[in-house]
Amino acid sequence: MSFDKEKLKAVILHVCAKCDPSNLGAIKLHKVLYFSDMLRYANVGDSITGSTYRKRPLGPTCEQLLGTLSELQRVGALEITRVNYFGYLKKQFSAKVKPDTNRLSADELALLDEVIEFVCDANSAKTISEFSHNRAWDMVEFGDIIEYKSVFQIFPIEVSEKSKEWAASEVKQLEDKTSGGKAPLGGKLLGEFREFILQARGKARTVLGTARLH
What we know:
Elements lengths: L4 H14 L7 H19 L8 E4 L2 E4 L2 H10 L3 E8 L2 E8 L10 H16 L3 H7 L3 H4 L22 H19 L10 H24 L1
Antiparallel strand pairs: 1-2, 3-4
Helix pairs in contact: 1-3, 2-4, 2-8
């Protein structure tokens, strides 16, 4: 996977321009990048940014994010502030220039916006961290790289009707617990995002089969 720093900059600025600064911290930014890159890989066999992701206690993190943020801040493209958040210091991000979305395809932008809505609007930093503790995350040791091919571990091999009913029940309980059954700020519920992942499953199988032939 080839890392593209300029695309990562474009993605970061797009995310920061799209989200209210009070609704985007470092944890959520890492998760937007992770889910966007992984789901893009599952769909077409390539990621958006080619970034490296490692297993950390609060979920997958983007190895190139910190350095890229510093670079964007240094040139005045991004403002990073630290605010008090229930007794803790939280980073907030504000884009100061228009994102160079010409580097991103229409499909990549559509996927980014789907993930932004779910991560930033429908979740807190805590719930999105818990959500990212999936089977792919479980399979590696802390500090190790989470390979792109591990995204296929997220997809079930076969989904029975009984499994779907159980999953729907679990999702409903979690939604009721975390958001009263409604997604804050009009964001997608967890169930909708789960469905989005399952829709990628068919394409993921095709990609996996092609990869095995080479």
